[in-house]
Design a protein that fits this description.
The chain is of the alpha+beta class and about 240 residues long. Helix content is about 55%, strand content about 20%. Belongs to the MgtC/SapB family.
Length: about 240
């Protein structure tokens, strides 16, 4: 194989990886344009190395390429994060795995299959997003279908009251609940409790626990918690 052929395969791997990464970058995911392009480039180079870098009767061109799968597994694990009870980054990790496969195909000279794989990854990450949301079944009966009322509290000192209020609003706006009110009152000398009330179409304790987890990492917050508030009982007139 000539040097130009190797460069063509490398360029194809980088280009197709960049196409996959463009969609991730556009959606502001952790692994974006550069990461996916580098993963595809690395897979392409490893395939070229395994196929043309070793010679002799004991050389096994599939040995190095086979380690790409396990190596990308460690890289994908680094983008999977736990946020309270929620797990984030699974789709990004799977996309990195696919980008490595596309790069390996480009390194093997299978340009058509590599291009088809790129199209498949982009279609899954874009078109199937709407399909997945339409498949999700909303809760229409049972206790989770009732309107949820929450009270969220955080305690801090007087000097950090404004900062904690801003953090509280920022943390709660990441949830699907509507922030109805927020107020502060003194609990003791130099201590302030910030209280927020929220409503939602259904109960989702995981989102509230995720908000607590984020706010509890703030050094100025000494205590933080949430509780459900009984819904007002409506009587017929």
């Amino acid at each position: 194989m000539t040097t130009w052929e190797m460069l063509l395969r490398l360029g194809t791997g980088v280009g197709l990886g960049a196409v996959i990464g463009f969609e991730r970058q556009f959606r502001a995911r952790m692994a974006g344009l550069r990461t996916n392009a580098l993963v595809a480039a690395g897979a392409t180079l490893f395939v070229l190395l395994s196929a043309h870098g070793f010679h002799g009767t004991d050389a096994d061109p599939t040995r190095v390429a086979a380690q790409i799968v396990s190596g990308i597994g460690f890289l994908g694990a680094g983008v999977i994060l736990r946020d309270g009870f929620n797990i984030r980054g699974l789709n990004t990790a799977a996309t990195l795995w696919c980008a490595a496969a596309v790069g390996a195909l480009a390194g093997a000279g299978m340009y058509t299959t590599a291009a088809a794989g790129t199209v498949a990854v982009v279609v899954v990450n874009t078109a199937l997003r709407t399909v997945a949301r339409s498949v999700d079944r909303p809760v229409t009966d049972g206790p989770e279908a009732q309107v949820a009322l929450y009270a969220f509290t955080a305690e801090t000192d007087d000097a950090h009251e404004a900062h904690v209020r801003a953090l509280l609003v920022q943390s709660l706006t990441r949830t699907d609940f509507q922030l109805n009110s927020i107020a502060s009152h003194d609990t003791s000398a130099g201590r302030v409790q910030v209280r927020a009330e929220l409503t939602g179409d259904r109960r989702d304790d995981r989102q509230m626990e995720a908000a607590v987890s984020r706010l509890s990492l703030e050094p100025s917050v000494t205590s933080v918690g949430w509780r459900t508030v009984p819904a007002p009982v409506e009587t017929e007139q």
